[in-house]
Description:
Layout: E1 2-4, E2 10-21, H1 26-31, H2 34-44, E3 53-57, H3 62-69, E4 74-76, E5 79-81, E6 84-86, E7 89-96, E8 99-106, E9 114-118, H4 123-126, E10 134-142
Antiparallel strand pairs: 1-2, 2-3, 2-10, 3-9, 4-7, 5-6, 7-8, 7-10, 8-9
Amino acid sequence: MMANTQEGEPQETLEISGSVLTGFNMGAYFMSQKGYVEQIYEKLSFKPYAGTLNIKVIEKDMGSFLKLRHSGGITVKGFEAEGKTFGDAILHRAEIRGLECAVIIPKLSKHKDVMEVISERNLRQAFDLSDGSVITVKVYLDVS
């Protein structure tokens, strides 16, 4: 399936479904770091809510998730702050039920079957989600 961006560049879309699960609040910690917030705003034009929506990808969509993990995307550079090193991440524009969001893939992620989604809104609240809720994310891949 192909879509056009505002710039008219063709994109491939992937639909990846899974069930919501509670993380370890590390997404909240990382998404509150100024170095990430500023870059995400610069690249995606929204300031991320301090947290990520964690989605355990269903088995039938693991191929699409692996493709996503190995695709280019928008790079967020790592940085140092308060004596700590924060690593690079890759962003892919996405949407859930028409709401703009992005999949964020930290370069050093330990997750192999969990997709992390960021948005300017708390996605759990926006869609009344709880652990086990099934959700589908439409992700845009650049094909240019």
